[in-house]
Every structure is written in C-alpha cells, then in structure tokens.
Design goal:
The protein is mostly beta strands. It is built from one helix and five strands. This is Cupin domain-containing protein.
Length: 88
Amino acid sequence: MTREEFEDTARREGYDDPKLVRFDPSSRSETHSHDKVSFVYVVEGEFILNTDGGAPRHGPGETCILPKNVNHAEEAGPDGATILVARK
C-alpha cells in the first residue's frame, strides 16, 4: 500500500487524520492501550507491535490494525521506525 492509499483508506473509513510518529532505533514503549482502534502504516524502518498475541514485524508500505483496549508496546528495529497512525 502506498502512503496516499493509506490516507485515502483512513479518510474513507472514518479515521482521524493520520499522525506521523517516529521511534528511535531499537526503542520500545511501555505497555499501554488506547481507547480507539489504531490503523498504522509504516513509512520507513521496522515497526514491531508487541501484544499478548505475538510480536509481528512490519516494514515500509505495510499496515496493521490494533483494536481498542489491547495492551501493547510499540518497538522499532535497529534503524528506528516512522509510522502514520490514524484512530477512530
């Protein structure tokens, strides 16, 4: 998926405007949850979404959806990660 396709899909499906988020190399957030569904697009780097269900790795051009109220930790690969995240 291209960035433009992601933004069009997010708009069409009622998500908020996407926000650009950058992660430092090999960083990992504290475990937390959100009260909205998160639609994520990887712009660059490697983005790992750690949940009780696993830790899938996503690369540039890939997307993932994180349901609301799911405990997770965002992690970046060795070169960091830049993502777009839209929520609803």
